[in-house]
Amino acid sequence: MTSEGPADERQQRSRIRPVKQRVENELISRPGVVGIDIGEKVSGGERTGVESIVVYVQRKRPLEDVADDERVPVEIDGVPTDVVEKRIRLLADAVKLVAPEDLVDGAAYRPVVGGVSLGPERPVHRTSPQVEKTGYYTFSGTIGAIVTDRLSGLALALTNYHVAAADPRWRRGDVQLQPSRGDEGDPVEDRIGTLARAELSDEVDAAVVLLDPGTPYYPAIHEVGEVAGSGPAVLGQKVRKRGRTTGLRHGVVGSVDLTVELDFGAAGTRVLHNQVRIDSSPDEGWFSDGGDSGSAVVDDRRRIVGLLCAGDEDGEFSIANPIGAVLDALDVDVLVAPRAGAGGRANSAGRAGSAGRGGGSGRGTAGSEAADRVRTQPTTAGAAGATTSRRVSTQSVGGDAYGEGADTDGIETQPFTQPFTQPFTQPFTQPFTQPVMQPFTQPFTQPFTQPFTQPFTQPFTQPFTQPFTQPFAQPATAPAGSGEGALRAAFWSGYLFALQQLDGGA
């Protein structure tokens, strides 16, 4: 920030922004350049109070070692430049399947909230230089917040593309765990949903996880409180985030103009524009680290302003997608807590159990008011009881405890509205006890492969109206009679038999 104050800084940025936007694509295509930003020029280690176009490079080389066509001009259209050495990386944590690291918070949270561990159930293949040793890895990131689909209204967990999708082999329906598999998440007990949507573009690195029916959730971020909505990031704004690795940290919005090149592994290298740069607090150090990707960056009114995705390797700043672009790309809205802002919806019960390990472990007593605001993903009646777990943290959110002892009155029991897309793998073992209320209206298209073994017990009530179209397959075995006389005898024999039946068998 310039010495003349935020207003003067914003004025300088307004003048510099169009120049930066005009040249940034050409600058970032140069070898070794990883980012273009607007920031205060530093000369000889001292701040100058002058805003400049900042060019981030992987390694700052002596000027004589840089080819003429790769050199950054001292100024561009009257705007000074500043070349700064930075290594920038994504912040998902690749954890080998063996011996997971000790982490700040690998606890299971029910109801599901923002600020906690998340990762795909499937392992992902990684090679050097992304990881030290080639192999299959699990990925750990963070749930940012609970959002809702704009069309269906269903609840989803927001995170990054590179956390939940991980690579181009992702598929809609990929199982997601909370906590992640790298944080000792169990593929059965800790499943919370499936990957619904993922977007990797020139502005966002984002994904949403559709919560399973019956999964309890709450529109809050652990250690931050109930979410009050969303809004744009503002230069100089004080912000905070809660992530799986570094927990709760504070920072300041240093820029909303960052253009950065990021390596997404198998998904390739992408250039993201209009990113939010969050400068770390000197009192706390790093704002984020590996495993914090997907965290929601919130302002002092608990409005989400960005979705954390990357940071520099020195911990001086972190990078977030602007939240408005994220929500539009995924076609979702931030779910707001009922008392935190307009638009929040009433909730129902969560699940209870023993506390998880790590910094998020512990127990609390849920007040009935808080429990009434916890909701569950729509399911059939009685299914919510299947969500109990061996490990649940019951820390308070915004002053309200949740989890164990929560009131279960009013759980929503909406039916399933999506068709089944997977075949049945187990036979039905229970008889049908309800009559079929509608007749079959589609013809049979498969031949019968088993003969009828039960006699018909009901009389035919309709005559045959279709002619026989198949020849008799068996020859007649009875000897031929005397022609017309035999036919006449057979007729009268049948006629007399019918009369006897009408007369009661007399």
UniProtKB/TrEMBL annotation:
Gene3D superfamilies named among the record's database cross-references: Trypsin-like serine proteases
Disordered: region residues: 1-21, 341-426
Compositional bias of kind Gly residues: 353-365
Biased composition (Low complexity): 341-352, 379-388, 413-426
InterPro entries (alphabetical): Peptidase_S1_PA (IPR009003), Peptidase_S1_PA_chymotrypsin (IPR043504)
Protein name in the entry: Peptidase S32
Species whose genome carries this gene: Cellulomonas fimi
Lineage: Bacteria, Bacillati, Actinomycetota, Actinomycetes, Micrococcales
